[in-house]
Amino acid sequence: MEFTIKTAAPEKLRVGVLVVGAFADGTLAAPAQAIDKASEGRLSQLIKRGDLEDKAGSSLMLHDLPGTAAERVLVVSLGKADEFGDKAYRDALSSVAKTLAGCAAKDAAVTLADAAVAKRSLTWRLQQASRLLADGAYRFDAPKANGKDTKKERGVRKVTLVIADKLNAELEAAVNRGHAIAEGMALAKDLGNQPGNVCTPAHLADTAKALGKHFKFDVEVLERADMEKLGMGSLLSVANGSQLPPKLIVMHYKGGKAKAKPVVLVGKGVTFDSGGISLKPGAEMDEMKYDMCGAASVIGTFKAVARMALPINLIGVIPAVENMPSGTATRPGDVVTSMSGLTIEVLNTDAEGRLILCDALTYAERFKPDCVIDIATLTG
Q1: Contacts of 342 (CB under 8 A, 6+ apart)
Q2: Which residue in 55, 90, 106, 280 is the catalytic one?
């Protein structure tokens, strides 16, 4: 999605969809008032009929509204005026995003950022708008028949955020921040949605390396032999049953001062979790491809951070493995030795998350971090 920001008279905007807000009592936000005036009260008449529900996020699409240059006007409820806050604002934007994603129009102008939210600045409102609108447009469309999309592509691709204030660099930066966060979220979702035979440990490593190359930060990938030298017996015990080699992916973003301690993100990267010898039930096992969403979150965060060029030092550590049953898999009752030197009796091979994370966390100690955040799914 492409974003621009501008100051303009709403009724003069030639776009596929113009988005304006109204409160439950019929009070119109300033941009909606301009549209109501241009249409000789048509907007307020429609709202008085009760066509727009009171709940924040409810909407009404109007076509060819008199006096307006837009092809369509989307009126969105902001809820009750005395209850309008962060949640109602986000609910309204999320509703707009859903509508725009399924709309035949290709461009839109959204005026909701001009609605005052208690204790929230215009920069905050703009950042939320670009993030939620971009995230709402997300669609996972990688696996196509014959590599082609068989459905006609729909949805708005260009959005103009319309405000009353004068433009400045701070406001433009807010829009870019929101968009950057949404792009990081989209990458994480793409990785999570890929099937296990595509998003393998090697695929995660390749994605991290490609990201590092694009944004010019360092990425190193430790192979099985490297982990054996480090004594990562706990992590490697999970990978024993799979034919796919494990990877320890280490990402280094250096945006802060040279001597500033880094923040370390550790993300669980089990690209498919069958449970190993302690096999999971077959029902819904396909969803175990999502057991690498901790790793996906770390990679997505790096994209957002690099895209925003944040002034911090950030390190990502991703233990990437596949947990499968085989003749070489770890057995219930086996004892393994972690990188820290502690021995672990594995009573259930489906408790693999802690086995890979403990070695990754021990590895992270070498960076003397300011703090460590571990991100994992399905880990007790």
Answers
A1: none
A2: 280
Residue with tokens 């727009």: 52
CA 3 to chain centre: 17
Cα 289 → chain centroid: 18
pLDDT tens digits for range 79-129 = 999 999 999 999 999 999 999 999 999 999 999 999 999 999 999 999 999
- Clarify whether 6 is annotated catalytic: no
The alpha carbon of residue 83 and the mean position of all alpha carbons in its chain are separated, in whole angstroms, by 28
Residue environment code for 227-252, b if the CB has 16+ CB neighbours within 10 A, otherwise e: beebbbbbbbbbbbbbebbbbbbbbb
Q: What is the pLDDT of residue 7?
A: 97
Res 149: pLDDT: 58
In the numeric block, the tokens 């250096």 are attached to 254
Inter-residue contact 266 to 281 (CB < 8 Å): no
For residues 19-40, average pLDDT = 96
* Whether 280 is catalytic: yes
Per-residue pLDDT tens digits for 277-294: 999 999 999 999 999 999
Q: Which domains does the chain have, with CATH numbers?
A: 2-191 (3.40.220.10), 197-375 (3.40.630.10)
**Model pLDDT for residues 145-199, shown as the tens digit of each residue:** 555 655 567 899 999 999 999 999 999 999 999 999 999 999 999 999 999 999 9
Has residue 255 got a pLDDT over 80? Answer: yes
